[in-house]
Amino acid sequence: MATLGNPGNTIEVLQKYKFNFQKKFGQNFLIDTHVLDKIIRESGVTKDDLVIEIGPGIGTMTQYLCENAREVVAIEIDKNLIPILQDTLSAYDNVTVINEDVLKVDIKKLAEERNGGKPVKVVANLPYYITTPIIMGLFESHVPIDSITIMVQKEVADRMQEGPGSKEYGALSLAVQYYAKPEIVANVPPNCFMPRPNVGSAVIRLTCHEKSPVEVKDESFMFNIIRASFNQRRKTLVNGLGNAGFLPVTKEQVAEALEKMELSPTIRGEALSLEQFAHLSNMLKK
Asked: What is the predicted pLDDT for the residue at 26?
């Protein structure tokens, strides 16, 4: 089978199947072999690995993954792509395509059945509109994951590795850093895709922590606090958390906790580090 990293081959497949790009699925197919090589290299996929690929499209990266992994499970939501994938992946016997919305797939069960519960690697060229729910879904369901190597919108990648004090820093930065070490491994310009997106992209690798960098009594409580802190960024923490409605804390309790932490009563969420959020959450949980 001709490799799809070559734009001519990609166009040929799309024409053969009269494929129409679906705006709602945010489809942009990679047409750059250098970028594909780089993703495979940075993901560290070996013949020992089960790889979960989210949104294989016409199978461009899937072909590369099949060459390098023990087994690939590719999850594709668009049923119009299934016959194309059967064609472009016909040379490989180590791939399974699942036509399903990834948010509805039990990936934990998949890892248990196909990988004996050992950590899997996730590799994906993610549609921008659904990046955050997919990543959070993988982390929150505690799927055993070694690393997640994904192509995302450049500004989302930046946000994942930001620290306190910057305007990009927010709930996504904290969640990603709680579960993993983020590292941007490549910047990818729009001309590497078909159709061309309006924004630059980046490949970011999230290497999952074996043990979280902070001690938290109640993970979901901490994330509710983080969510409330960034829901209205301009508010002080005392007001943001005290008025959140879904948090069982009063303004007085927040003010008291901040005082014990020797933080200003007018501090905003964007100034707190992950360690400080963990500390605050543990104090308020009492």
From this structure: 67
